[in-house]
Amino acid sequence: MSLILQNMPFLAVAALICVSLYIMMTQRNLIKIVMGVTIFQSAVNLFLVALGYRSDGVAPVFTSGPVELMVLPVPQALTLTSIVIGVSTTALMLSLIILIYRHTGETDAEKSRRVKG
Amino acid sequence: MIRRVGISLTLIIIAVMFFASALLMHPFGAPPSIMDDYIIENSQQETGTNNVVSAVVFDYRGYDTLGEATVLFLAATAVIMLFRSRKGEVAEK
Amino acid sequence: MTSKIVRTTAQFVTPAVLLYGLYLIIHGHVSSGGGFQGGAVFASSAALLVVAFGSERVSSLLQEHRLVAISCSGALMFIGLAFAGMGTTFFFNLFAGSPLFGNVPAYGPNPEDIWTGGTVPLMNIAVALNVVAGLSAIVLAMALATVKRGDDK
């Protein structure tokens, strides 16, 4: 039981991934599928930041105060890259949805499968 | 009917796998940290910045930042290109 | 077009947001911040103006060829700084020790000096140019593409 309480951030990551997979597999509206992808990216960012946490640590910046225990800086750098790539992917997906709506008039994933012309 | 059975079976198997892996991770708050100890000790001498995260992003792992800047530039160019009309200007509708 | 209260508040808030973004970009190597964080805050002011004033008025100010020129110059400056230390290795920090951005801080607590860091402050500025122009172009292009005209499809 104390294992569940101690590893709570990793359990939250697992719950977010399962929710996002359910959304991506069962919803039919295109915008809701994009929302599922965004939740998946947020879960991965949370996992990266939670990997590098040390108990009673401060941010890894040297200031004019005394030196204390610092959290790990490398997972934070990888999360920075992941957030920017998530923004680029979401922007491109939404642009393609706008073009699909202009071309076929539908936002349903089943009804807009055929590319005309 | 068969589609619903398939989807729920997949989700149950994936959920069990992820929750079991989350309980088998290292205890939260005590990660293995050989490389990061070296970086925190020596980053001020080698890079000269007070911000260790900026030193990691731009100096120790600058190649990843190059790839990320390329992805952002490519996404902006692609969005502009997708919304052009035939005459070559950004379309209004 | 939104109401007059929203437009006036946007005019008041935009210089404060731009100043905060510039602070995050320039002090990226001394305290928290950096190129990506400051660039995102800077580009959020463009999104604020698009929401408050409408995309057609903003697109006459932020023209497309200017944004593309700023983004390209930011990316080229980043690659130029990466190749400048090619004598030793790729991405070598060649300004550490020289008079331009060359001081080395002592280990542990120190008075924060802005003339430290080597190539890191210049790379911060290059990445910030890239991020500002890219995010503003994305927001503006998508807002212009969804302008509602009289006849719907």
Q: How would you explain this protein's 3D organization?
A:
Chain A has helices at residues 2-6, 8-26, 30-51, 74-104. Chain A has one domain (2-53, 70-104): Helix Hairpins, CATH 1.10.287.3510. Chain A is elongated, with a radius of gyration of 20 Å. In chain A, 66% of the residues lie in helices and 0% in strands. Chain A is built from four helices and no strands. In chain A, helix 2 packs antiparallel against helix 3 and helix 3 (30-51) packs antiparallel against helix 4 (74-104). Chain B has one domain (2-82). Chain B is 70% helix and 0% strand. Chain B has helices at residues 2-23, 34-46, 52-60, 62-82. In chain B, helix 3 packs across helix 4. Chain B is flat, with a radius of gyration of 24 Å. Chain C is an all-alpha fold and 153 residues long. Chain C is elongated. The longest helix of chain C is centred in the C-terminal third of the chain and has 26 residues, at 120-145. Chain C has one domain. Chain A binds chain B through residues 3-4, 6-11, 13-14, 17-18, 21-22, 25-26, 50-55, 60-63, 70, 72-74, 76-78, 80-81, 84-85, 87-89, 91-92, 95-96, 99, and chain B through 7, 10-11, 14-15, 18-19, 21-23, 25, 27-31, 33, 35-36, 39-40, 44, 50-53, 55-57, 61, 64-65, 67-68, 71-72, 74-75, 78-79, 82-83.
Number of domains of chain B: 1
Counting DSSP H or I runs of 4 or more residues, the number of helices of chain C is 5
**H/E topology pattern of chain C:** HHHHH
Return the string of H and E elements of chain B. HHHH
**Computed CA radius of gyration of chain B, to the nearest angstrom:** 24 Å
Largest inter-chain contact set? A-B, 45 and 42 residues
What is the strand and helix layout of this fold?
The complex is a heterotrimer of chains A (117), B (93) and C (153).
Chain A (H helix, E strand, L loop, with lengths): L1 H5 L1 H19 L3 H22 L22 H31 L13
Chain B lengths: L1 H22 L10 H13 L5 H9 L1 H21 L11
Chain C lengths: L3 H23 L8 H19 L1 H5 L4 H21 L35 H26 L8
Helix pairs in contact in C: 1-2, 2-5, 4-5
